[in-house]
Backbone:
């Protein structure tokens, strides 16, 4: 039989109901309305955008004053970028520890009871809802200026995110090996160690590397509120209108981001994550 | 009804081993309902499995075979009746006592349920970790020599020593199911409960797996309760064949006494039900 014959034999395609068409068009209109509403609320102005990007005192002036990059701050930028890197490493490490400790209670299929599950999920939602920048402001007050505050902020906020991502990965995993160990009399901890972790390690690794990537960029921003690192240098240079220094510092950041992205991609590929 | 005339013997028809108080598994008056206002899936099932005996359960989809098996190890909580594993009623147990009772019954699943990223040998070891404390079971390198020896022997028992260090995810379906049986053996149970263990296997591998289960019963003295969809395998390997229809035992006899009509009656009405669906 020809392909055309097979198509011709199909029954007529059912028409969408008037209600579902109304819902679809209604959704598009609501989304468009939200965009307009948001634009009006931020006092968006195309005229200001064009003026800022192209007038002599706008972006072209900043670019002109950024060239050439100032090399005498390169050494300091590199040293401070290592601090930023270390902040991200420790922040990620502690959030992985926190996430792993909480995930057996935050996954619907492993939690010992519904009450515990809801309580842990609420805690994770709380730490996730408050941005690391806010946590950094709090920790700067509590433990003082510097990268230690930034690391703590990343750890607390990251625990909420990593805990949720890990828990969702566990909820989607094949339950058969878990059931097999459960009916053999294994304890919850043994099941987690020998059935859950091995199955979920590639996913966990991928999520952790992604989170580290995000944390490195977040720790730049945390420098702006006094949490140290190269973000702090960028903030100072900006405040003093030292755009040539800013350019050098941004180049250092760019190299770090490219290296981290590349290493992360290679690791994920090798681990099958 | 197709069942009229079938002999329903329940516990009265069993051998001495299955009737004995110390039999690996005795199910008495088992009832199960998934929702309070839903239909009863198990309606007073009586069944026993003795030492050195392999019992095959046949029946159409939805007749309650797998539900009975899952109730037997408390993966499901029955709504009535007793399940005696080694003489202890598992329905009344919880926590450590339930874990200890579960160790007496090993389960072989239809979907094999190995940890794909672990080797065949490590998977077999996992059958025995339930009896260990956390310190000895924290990592495979901490497993005691006795467990490792038992796992090696179990792997040899299923003829897969040469596959010991191969990742479970790279084994064929038949090999993986034999590893799952080795894991069950390593648990040192008094009974193996197998839920459609050959559904995903080709006929040759299915035959091998059933022969292995029969050998574990006859040569190693384990009780084996196996749920099957292959009457020919049940008739060839089982000591008793149990037919289930609509949550009840329709017959329970030696294979030599099971006729083609008995088997056909188990699946009668399936085509009508499928049409209606």
Residues:
């Amino acid at each position: 039989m020809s392909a055309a014959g097979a198509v011709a034999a199909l029954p007529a395609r059912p028409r969408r109901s008037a209600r579902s068409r109304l819902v679809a068009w209604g959704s598009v209109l609501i989304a468009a309305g939200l965009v307009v509403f948001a634009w009006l609320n931020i006092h968006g102005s195309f005229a200001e955008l064009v003026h800022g990007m192209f007038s002599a005192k706008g972006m072209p002036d900043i670019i002109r004053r950024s060239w050439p990059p100032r090399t005498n701050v390169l050494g300091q930028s590199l040293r401070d970028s290592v601090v930023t890197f270390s902040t991200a490493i420790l922040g990620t490490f502690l959030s992985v520890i926190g996430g792993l400790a909480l995930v057996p209670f935050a996954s619907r299929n492993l939690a010992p009871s519904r009450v515990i599950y809801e309580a842990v999920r609420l805690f994770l939602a709380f730490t996730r809802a408050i941005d690391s920048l806010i946590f950094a402001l709090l920790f700067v007050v509590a433990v003082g200026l510097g990268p230690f505050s930034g690391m703590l902020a990343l750890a607390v906020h990251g625990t909420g995110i990593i805990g949720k991502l890990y828990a969702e990965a566990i909820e989607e995993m094949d339950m058969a090996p878990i059931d097999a160990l459960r009916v053999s009399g294994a304890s919850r901890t043994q099941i987690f160690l020998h059935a859950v972790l091995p199955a979920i390690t590639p996913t966990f690794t991928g999520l952790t590397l992604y989170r580290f990537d995000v944390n490195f960029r977040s720790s730049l921003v945390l420098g702006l509120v006094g949490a140290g690192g190269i973000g702090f240098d960028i903030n100072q240079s900006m405040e003093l209108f030292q755009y040539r220094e800013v350019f050098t510092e941004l180049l250092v950041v760019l190299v770090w981001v490219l290296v981290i992205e590349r290493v992360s991609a290679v690791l994920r590929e090798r681990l099958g994550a | 009804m197709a069942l009229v005339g079938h002999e329903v013997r329940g516990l009265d028809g069993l051998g001495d081993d299955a009737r004995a108080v110390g039999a690996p598994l005795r199910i008495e008056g088992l009832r199960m309902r998934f929702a309070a206002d839903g239909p009863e899936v198990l309606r007073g099932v009586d069944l026993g499995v003795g030492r050195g005996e392999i019992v095959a359960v046949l029946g159409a989809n939805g007749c309650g075979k797998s539900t009975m098996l899952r109730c037997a190890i408390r993966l499901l909580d029955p709504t009535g009746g007793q399940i005696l594993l080694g003489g202890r009623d598992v329905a009344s147990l919880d926590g450590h006592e339930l874990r200890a009772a579960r160790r007496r019954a090993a389960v072989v699943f239809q979907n094999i349920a190995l940890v794909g990223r672990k080797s065949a040998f490590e998977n077999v070891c996992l059958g025995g970790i339930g009896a260990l404390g956390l310190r000895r079971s924290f990592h495979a390198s901490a497993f005691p020599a006795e467990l490792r020896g038992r796992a090696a022997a179990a792997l040899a028992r299923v003829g897969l020593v040469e596959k010991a260090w191969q990742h479970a995810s790279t084994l064929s379906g038949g090999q993986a199911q034999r590893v799952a049986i080795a894991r069950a053996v390593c648990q040192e149970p008094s009974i193996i409960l197998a839920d459609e263990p050959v559904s995903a296997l080709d006929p040759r591998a299915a035959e091998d797996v059933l022969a292995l289960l029969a050998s574990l019963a006859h040569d190693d003295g384990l009780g084996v309760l196996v749920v099957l969809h292959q009457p020919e395998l049940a008739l060839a390997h089982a000591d008793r064949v149990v037919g289930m229809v609509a949550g009840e035992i329709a017959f329970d006899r030696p294979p030599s006494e099971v006729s083609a009509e008995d088997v056909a009656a188990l699946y009668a009405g399936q085509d009508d039900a499928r049409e209606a669906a």
Notes: Residues 235 and 255 of chain B are 5 Å apart (CA to CA). Chain B touches chain A at residues 73, 75, 99-103, 105-107, 109, 111-118, 126-127, 129-132, 134, 137-139, 180, 183, 187 (CB under 8 Å).
